[in-house]
Amino acid sequence: NQMASSPSFLLLAALLALVSWQAVASDPGPLQDFCVADMLSPVRVNGFVCKNPMEVNADDFFKAAALDKPRVTNKVGSNVTLINVMQIAGLNTLGISIARIDYAPLGQNPPHTHPRATEILTVLEGTLYVGFVTSNQPAPNRNKFLSKVLNKGDVFVFPVGLIHFQFNPNPHKPAVAIAALSSQNPGAITIANAVFGSDPQISDDVLAKAFQVEKNTIDWLQAQFWENNHN
User: Fold this and answer.
1) Is 172 annotated as a binding residue?
2) Contact between 99 and 166 (Cβ < 8 Å)
3) Which of 58, 127, 164, 211 could crosslink 132 through cysteines, CB 3.0-4.6 Å?
4) What confidence tens digit (pLDDT) does each residue in 150-168 have?
């Protein structure tokens, strides 16, 4: 068939395949008003099975989270209180969650990523120095660092999957922010914790080569207590 072998037909077929693949790879939108997570179901799916809608009530969409109350921060000087589908079952399939982040003076939410969500952050109190790093790029751009100092009322966006952080530069006053994330379960990978605090540990030969340092430096880092600031 001459048409099937023509360059234009092959290009069209390739484009259709790409579009079809992207459609399958993306999360589907809700096909009903809601799908409250049935945490007790033995069925395992990508997300959670829907609870019988006849058994749904207002409490499935509610949590007395006390997000107006300050939290105790950890040794890096922050505390992330995340409200996702595990706290509010009604978030299942809705693609959103929220977090309150408390920062001690000179505290930080250390470099981390959300593998499944873009984050939009609003400063409620204080000042924050924030930034993110782009993915690997060919030279000369490489990994571009974008940063900004935010004051009360300012908003900043961290694109999905990119390494980012927030730091409170004030040595005397705490800071507070609220973040919305575009997933019912955004996930968080704190870079230092994942690399140096994994269980079991990554070989110090691998990390010494990757970071171009001596193995005893890696051994010292792996011996530290890498505390999780996400609650």
Assistant:
1) no
2) no
3) 164
4) 999 999 999 999 999 999 9
